[in-house]
Amino acid sequence: MKEIAGIPASRGIGIGPVFQFVRQELIIEKRLNVQPEVELKRLNDAISTARNQIERIYEKVLKESSDADAEIFQAHIMILEDPELFAEVEKKIKDQAKSAELAMQEAGQSFSDIMAAMKDEYFAARATDILDVSNRVLRILLGVAESPTAALIKPSIIVSDDLTPSDTVMLDKSLVIGFCTARGSATSHTAILARGLGIPAVAGAGDEVLSQKNGIEVILDGTKGTAIIAPDEKLITEYRQRIKAANTIREEAMKFVKDPATTKDGKQIEVVANIGNIEGAKSAIENGAEGVGLFRTEFLYLERTKLPTEEEQFQVYKDILDVFGDMPVILRTLDVGGDKEIAYMGLEAESNSFLGQRALRLCLVRPDIFKPQLRAALRASVGYNLKIMFPMVATANEVRAARKVLDECAAELKDEGVQIAEDIEIGIMVEIPSAALVADQLAKEVDFFSIGTNDLSQYTMAADRTNPKVAELSNAFYPAVLRLVREVIRAAHKAGKWVGMCGELAGEPLALPILLGLELDEFSMNPPMIPLAKQIIRNLDTRDMKEIADQALELESPSEIQDFIKEKIPFIAKITE
Amino acid sequence: MKESKIVVNNKVGLHARPASLFVQAAAKFKSDINVYCQDPETKEDRNANAKSILGILTLGVFNGMEITIKAEGEDEDAAVEALLALVEENFGEE
Lengths: 577, 94
Hints:
A: Glucose Oxidase, domain 1, Enzyme I, Chain A, domain 2, 48% helix, B: Histidine-containing Protein, Chain: A, four-stranded antiparallel β-sheet, 4 strands
């Protein structure tokens, strides 16, 4: 038995066998006595199999994800059918008596090299696509499994270095108990995917997890951020009971999923969802969300080769708004910086990108990025309850500058005769300590605040939440962070504005009593957390929570505060055990 | 054989989505279709198979460059016409 510590990336407990996700290396040996006719036939068969595979992926992605994601695979089909590429492969087989594998590999590599040499992000992406396609054909020729997960046949804990969107697109999610990655963080693709699926994940667990054999039993504790390798029976039984207890409460919560979260003293609390795409939107509705407190728009910009057009964004926004009808949906404008690889934006790498020109700071100097997004959002707003929110605000001037661009966009649309909704509420994320400290000034500029506790914690505590060595400090339960939250809510209410929270804290069972006590107006969280949060809120009385919150904020550390809540409200203690 | 010249005026030239659209349109015809252009710096003549996305991309046709489309086969007239129309309307870009 061995416990490996990592970063908690998605809460929950999973018990199951290890499945090592390894990208296979393709080994091609030179063969003698090659018969060109035989090789050409093999090549053609492999191409037709590859086309079937790609078409299947394309259909799957189109159904489950966005058109933009699907476009990648459409490009793959075009490369697969490219006459120049395959003329080159055939030439190598016919004239140089090379095997189909060798010819394919050489031709794929040389075309990819030509693209890569063009020193242009667009071509660099195509170079990767060519290799991707040629590797697919090679895998078929060599009889290697289509994807590293083809051997995944029973529910397992996926262990990997780190996973990319193309790795997970073909993953059968019903066979994934949890994710454990050697690298990555609570914000990496795997972590976001896991939270969306409501399954546990541990990130940044180090190389040791990669040396665990397939099939070895592991307990993955995504709440604590640990993986226990080869646990003994006693521990497994203990964890199984915890899963069972948690499931009972969850099942109960699911019974009332569509009911509002009304506290014991009769206050109806707004519980909404954090979403990042249409899948999340659907999951939000299933889990009883009363709207969207945070619609992340980054997905529209990642994994592609050019900016999404206004038209494309308009369609996506409209599709999402349509899921929610007249429920509120808060769209957050683009939140990226130098840490994200978006080659086509030409962002410069910064030595400290979390303190760099990111999010609104970037948008304000890049109207080519900012304006199409705002125009698309305004156009999509007609007939829905859309609100717009700007991330990473530090000063009142930034809010005014952002509103000015928004007003310009609205005026342009009006001139063009395009209709937009009246009275769209405008808000900001409060996630920088400076914004929290001058919340009274910022409240004058906006209709609402939404507190982003993940960034607020790391900026307040000066601790990078992706660095395992200091991640513990980047915890929203530190009283410094909670006191800022209290001040923000006070300042907003004084100005007659409402405050939501879209950071992880808003869905934390142990934080709910404190946030109710601080009179937070709106709670926004990942869809799978909603039923439980609502059920907890139903069992609390806000009149008692004020006192509890005040006392909690006098304590010194997260563990003291959490223990205090557990002691005061035993039923929540049971859920979080 | 049918051939015709046209200046490419859309923003990115024969790249990205316009290149895909061009190749998809060319692939609909039975004729052999080739695109010719001249390197603006070296004045070297280049050409590519219009049905090859890799060929068209590496041809490097940017905004403002003139290309010659040559088609040979049973539907050569329709092919050249269709491709000219696509370039003329700037690939449906805004």
